[in-house]
Amino acid sequence: MKEEKIHLHDKTFKPYIRHERILDAIDGVARELNSDFHGCTDIPVVLCVLNGSIPFTGELLQRIDFPCQLVSIKLSSYQGTQSTGTVLNVMGLTSSVRGRRVIICEDIVDTGNTIVALKEMLLDKEGAAEVRICTLLLKPEVYNKPVKLDYVGMEIPNAFIVGFGLDYNELGRNIRDIYVIDE
Ligand code: IMP
Question: What is the pTM of this model?
Answer without folding.
Answer: 0.94
